[in-house]
What we know:
single chain, alpha+beta, Rossmann fold, six-stranded mixed sheet, 9 helices
Amino acid sequence: MLVDFTVENYRSIKEPVTLSAVAQKQSTRKTSATSKRKGIKSDHEIAPGYYVEGWDMEILPVLAIFGANASGKSNVIQALDYLLIMMSRSIQQTAMLQRIFKYAKPEPFKLDNISPQNNTKFELRTIFNNNIYTYYLELNQNHVFHEKLDYAPFKTKRIRRLFDRKWDSNSKQFIWKTGEDFAGSHNLLHTNIKENDLFISTLANLKVDIISTLLDWLLGGWCGMNLGYGKVDFSFIDSLPENDMDRINIDIQQALQIVQKFDTGISGVKIDKQNDSFLNKYNIYAVHKDNAGNEINWLFDEESLGTQRLFELAFWIKSTLKTGRLMIVDELGTNIHPNVVKYIIKMFQNPKTNPTNSQLIFTSHDNTLQRNNLLRRDQIWFTQKRPDHSTELYPLTDFHVRNDLAIDKAYLDGRFGAVPFLPSDEEMILQGDEEWPEI
């Protein structure tokens, strides 16, 4: 599970910002007896955290980031998404994916004279089997300068080194250090790791017992940030072995069960193999029924954009909840009804529908998601521009608000920042006069 993530000097992010999934300590303070807003739940009632044995902390199932356009919401989760891709697939494969899927490159902050010369830095903390793993990476677009992995066993809580490689500018080579707990033949690969690649991504293809749970999570434990942001894409099916199709079919049918809850009119989904196509091995069809009960099929890309996005989300949600993954979604509510978005959030919040402790991190402009009894106060985060146009990231809990506050209204009123500055009505009228002169 993700504990927290820190990034520095990445696109609009200049100073270090940290997104944390660690739950705030449960407050004993109750809603005021004179409050006009009855039925308000405590944070713990809204979403119980995942208790981590030995660390006296809970991890949150959902984090939501709100903010004005161009405030850096997407850059925060892009940075996390990008780091996970590099860790699991290597920098070279990530560069290839950039060209195909247009991932954001690790470009530095460009609006001053110093940051473009500095490196981008990431730090990721995760927890598996109650042990905390901390991965640190410092690089620019051409070179890795520092990469290290530590862990802290829950029994001792002492941080122990696994590996550390740091570039020495004098000798033009990496200085390597490994810990006693990291002994093994994998350390013989040191000399094969290039200046522009990661040791962790090499380890991902090996069996290293002490970090096996971390590597499993990296290889199959997260879903990328563009989900729900474009047309449904099942092109990955074409690259799968045919013996995987039964499993994919099961996942698709389970996703269909979610989509059918929202009255989309789809009664089924079919996958047909094409033997005469050089582009796609499979066609995906949506199945509908006419008034007489007859099946009518058409290609899934003929469905409405909203239905396609919903189906793609449902497909990955089902897979995420089944395997304990991390799901990252930019603009979760794009072309999807707000009630559907709330239902998705509740699926992750409810231990009955999320028994594997999966996590969801998303951005949104929909302030109705901030209304009480959907998200805890420590699940709501904001981004806003600093005076130098860099991104500031901070949680709602910085404001110490009551749990019965109408957070959505307070947010639009600008009480927490992270809203756009708009011209006044008078300014708009004057601008209108200038733009539309009398004829």
